[in-house]
């Protein structure tokens, strides 16, 4: 049963209402259009040099979710949530720099001269990085978009839980993911069957220091 959810929440309310939900109503699904609408908000996230290294595998097929269940260490949300969104990071995102800056010129956001300079600089810089550094950048950008995806989902009335606990090698094998792409996380998205657990945060004074670091 596909059910559309339309909510309008303030940002302050969204970040306070968002909790990791692990129990979902399996009878409620999301349409491809709803998921695409969610991802359209998520991809507005920032990235290093705007290279947008994120890639997604959206898993809604129930038989695939059943196959994924043991790979995700039998976390029940894998088969109960409306969708599992796998976030990947492209270690060679610089290869897309031409099309990124071509679209910026077409939109009137950059001149051809700026485009040519940025394409050359981005290609020369990122292609020369070590594989380890390329992966580090992809994981940072993957974290940024993952958080944006979860906040966007909450703003639209859905719930989520990020999952780092899964066998990445078996996941790669299942979906035949090339080594060019880093696995960032899995995100369950759907309609909560039970509220997420309330949590507390460390006091601000325990985590913030101004103008220096004293340990």
UniProtKB/TrEMBL annotation:
<protein>
    <submittedName>
        <fullName>NAD(P)H nitroreductase</fullName>
    </submittedName>
</protein>
<dbReference type="InterPro" id="IPR000415">
    <property type="entry name" value="Nitroreductase-like"/>
</dbReference>
<dbReference type="GO" id="GO:0016491">
    <property type="term" value="F:oxidoreductase activity"/>
</dbReference>
<dbReference type="Pfam" id="PF00881">
    <property type="entry name" value="Nitroreductase"/>
</dbReference>
<comment type="similarity">
    <text>Belongs to the nitroreductase family.</text>
</comment>
<dbReference type="InterPro" id="IPR029479">
    <property type="entry name" value="Nitroreductase"/>
</dbReference>
<feature type="domain" description="Nitroreductase">
    <location>
        <begin position="15"/>
        <end position="191"/>
    </location>
</feature>
<keyword id="KW-0560">Oxidoreductase</keyword>
